[in-house]
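Researcher: We plan to redesign the surface later, but first we want a full-length starting point. Tokens attached.
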């Protein structure tokens, strides 16, 4: 039994390490894509090479590169797009400095280890992939025949899309995000009513967390497009900020309301759930609340009470003493006076709670 537990624990650790490695790879690739975003000097040069129907093989300098290049000639001149386009008319590879400020070599022959496995078929792309893997650097291969730009970074490969195509995809994804945000706002309004009437269930909480996570994932996809778009993504960026304003704050407060100290753990579980598992509410009820069926649950009141003018320290005091929103909404003056000695403050709190409840039940925005 102990051995079985150790095996399960070991497998879980391996899965977690794999996830972390994948996240690091994704982050590194996104960082690399920033230097190829529209408007940057390098992207301008690559687009111009493609428009001129030329091919090219461009390597970003890395330690050990001198061991896999032959022939060509040393240039060591300042980088600019026009020079790179002119040099791409030659057959050999071009070597750029690490900071992309200089063109170091041109017309060189790359001789990476032919034993390195490659998925490519063309000579240029094989050399590009093998060089990227062997040196752990970034290599760009431009194919005049296929009319495409391929980036190889270490073990990863990425095809650069035209700006117009990325903008189209970003716009489509934004439309999906808008629908999800509308759905989320409806669920939040409904949750407001359920919380002030003490009718919230575990399914209600899981449904809204499910939608929060969908919004987060779609937003992340748009953010990736923004990295690729660079300066061309200003309008998309503005719309994304407008749509997701305050959403992260609402998500955090709901998690604190229902899970307290476990909120960060629940948040991480949500982010790592696969899509098919995420969209099944019963799955979420089971893993978040440890129950098989829907049941009543009461929030602490952090989110709802933050919509009032009551000071944060006073909200914390009430939650610490009365534990749930249901009890706080049913407080009378005498109960509050036991923790707040100031009568004016007590009256102010009771009035704020009363007004908030009325607004919610009348369907007003809070």
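Model: Full-length starting sequence:
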């Amino acid at each position: 039994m102990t051995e079985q537990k150790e095996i399960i624990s070991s497998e879980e650790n391996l899965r977690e390490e794999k996830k972390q490695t994948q996240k690091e790879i994704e982050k590194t690739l996104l960082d690399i894509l920033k230097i190829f975003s529209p408007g940057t000097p390098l992207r301008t040069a690559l687009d111009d090479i493609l428009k001129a129907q030329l091919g090219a093989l461009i390597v970003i300098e890395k330690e050990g590169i001198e061991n896999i290049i032959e022939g060509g000639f040393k240039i060591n001149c300042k980088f600019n797009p026009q020079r790179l386009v002119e040099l791409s008319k030659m057959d050999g590879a071009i070597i750029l400095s690490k900071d992309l400020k200089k063109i170091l070599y041109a017309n060189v022959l790359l001789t990476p280890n032919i034993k390195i496995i490659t998925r490519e078929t063309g000579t240029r792309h094989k050399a590009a992939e093998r060089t990227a893997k062997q040196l752990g650097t970034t290599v760009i291969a431009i194919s005049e025949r296929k009319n495409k730009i391929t980036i190889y970074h270490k073990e990863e490969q990425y095809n650069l899309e035209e700006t117009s195509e990325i903008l189209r995809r970003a716009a489509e994804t934004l439309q999906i995000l808008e629908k999800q945000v509308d759905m989320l706002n409806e669920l939040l309004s409904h949750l407001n009513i359920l919380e002030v009437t003490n009718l919230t269930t575990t399914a209600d909480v899981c449904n809204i967390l499910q939608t929060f996570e969908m919004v987060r994932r779609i937003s992340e996809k748009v953010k990736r497009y923004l990295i690729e778009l660079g300066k061309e993504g200003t309008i998309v960026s503005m719309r994304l900020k407008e749509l997701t304003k305050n959403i992260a704050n609402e998500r955090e407060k709901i998690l604190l309301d229902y899970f307290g100290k476990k909120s960060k753990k629940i948040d991480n579980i949500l982010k790592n759930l696969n899509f098919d598992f995420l969209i099944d509410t019963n799955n979420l009820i089971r893993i978040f609340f440890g129950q098989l069926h829907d049941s009543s649950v009461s929030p602490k009141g952090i989110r709802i009470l933050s919509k009032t003018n009551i000071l944060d320290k006073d909200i914390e005091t009430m939650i610490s003493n009365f534990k749930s929103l249901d009890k706080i909404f049913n407080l009378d003056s005498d109960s509050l006076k036991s923790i707040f000695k100031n009568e004016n403050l007590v009256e102010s709190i009771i009035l704020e709670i009363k007004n908030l409840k009325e607004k919610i039940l009348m369907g007003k925005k809070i």
